[in-house]
């Protein structure tokens, strides 16, 4: 039976209580009841009927509101999890792609530029082989925290995949982005990651590229930063490398 039919039946039953009580009273007294008593009985029956039905409807609405609140919280949690890397807590590749597309569109519209930094941990496979994947996970968490520490307001950090991270730097020139990458590189290599295998030193290679509106797409920007990253690997690792056309501004490792 539907809830609407249940409430209708309950209301009808409660509504019968008042006249039934009045009829029983008349049988007992053997005469006509007092008009004031009739009013009080009928009013009492109405209060019981409507009050009981209202209370049940209210409880139903409270339960529905609570259920909706739980569903909303779960939906928000799932939405957050869908764009967050579960290991490091930073944004995942899906969130990075969306943010990069949005930033590129904004810069195209306002004819401004932004920079992209791609970084990859050096010799990470060897680290996993030597100390285990749990220690490797601890290193990835350490790098994510290091990036968050260096992040400025408005910057976007993401785990691009595996041991590779990406950072979107709005309103940042190639020169300033290279300086940011160098500070971050130093912060990573001068500190030690606390892992299950003990403190471990780690370094990273950085590739930097800048988006120029009207001259490249978001995908081409990623390709330029990725090529710069491979150039940093080829240059000996643990360094910052801008795009090939800006090789003169390369920042060597300290």
Walk me through what this model shows.
The chain is α+β, with helices and mostly antiparallel strands and 254 residues long. Helix content is 60%, strand content 15%. The strands form 2 sheets. A 5-stranded mixed beta sheet has the order 2-3-1-6-7, with helices on both faces. Strands 4-5 form a two-stranded antiparallel sheet. A hairpin with a 2-residue loop joins strand 2 (156-161) and strand 3. Helix 1 runs antiparallel to helix 2 (35-82) and helix 5 (133-150) packs across helix 6. The longest helix is centred in the N-terminal third of the chain and has 48 residues, at 35-82. The radius of gyration is 34 Å and the shape is elongated. The N and C termini lie far apart (77 Å).
In short:
By secondary structure, this protein is of the alpha+beta class.
Structural class label:
alpha+beta
Q: In what range is the share of β-strand residues? A: 15-25%
Order of helices and strands: HHHEHHEEHEEEHE
- Tell me the helix content: 55-70%
Mean pLDDT: 83
The parts where pLDDT drops under 50 for at least 5 residues are: 247-254
- Biggest beta sheet summary: 5 strands, mixed
Topology (elements, then pairings):
Blueprint: H1 3-29, H2 35-82, H3 93-110, E1 114-121, H4 124-131, H5 133-150, E2 156-161, E3 164-170, H6 174-190, E4 192-195, E5 198-201, E6 204-211, H7 218-234, E7 240-241
Parallel strand pairs: 6-7
Antiparallel strand pairs: 1-3, 1-6, 2-3, 4-5
Helix pairs in contact: 1-2, 4-5, 5-6
């Amino acid at each position: 039976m539907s809830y609407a039919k249940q409430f209708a039946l309950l209301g009808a039953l409660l509504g019968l209580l008042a006249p039934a009580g009045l009829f029983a009273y008349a049988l007992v007294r053997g005469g006509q009841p007092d008009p004031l008593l009739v009013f009080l009985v009928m009013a009492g029956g109405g209060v019981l009927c409507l009050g009981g039905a209202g209370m049940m409807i209210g409880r139903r609405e409270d339960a529905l509101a609570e259920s909706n609140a739980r569903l909303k919280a779960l939906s928000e949690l799932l939405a957050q999890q869908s764009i967050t890397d579960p290991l490091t807590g930073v944004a995942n590749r899906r969130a990075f792609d969306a943010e990069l597309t949005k930033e590129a569109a904004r810069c195209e519209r306002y004819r401004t530029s932004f920079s992209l930094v791609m970084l990859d941990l050096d010799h990470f496979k060897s680290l996993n082989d030597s100390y285990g994947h749990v220690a490797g996970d601890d290193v990835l968490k350490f790098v994510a925290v290091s990036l968050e520490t260096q992040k400025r307001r408005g910057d976007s950090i993401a785990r691009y995949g595996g041991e590779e991270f990406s950072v979107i730097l709005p309103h940042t020139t190639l020169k300033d982005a290279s300086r940011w990458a160098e500070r971050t590189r130093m912060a990573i290599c001068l500190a030690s990651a606390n892992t299950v295998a003990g403190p471990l030193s780690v370094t990273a290679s950085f590739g930097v590229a800048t988006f120029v509106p009207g001259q490249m797409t978001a995908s081409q920007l990623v390709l330029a930063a990725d090529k710069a990253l491979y150039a940093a690997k080829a240059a000996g690792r643990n360094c910052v490398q801008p795009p090939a056309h800006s090789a003169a501004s390369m920042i060597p490792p300290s």
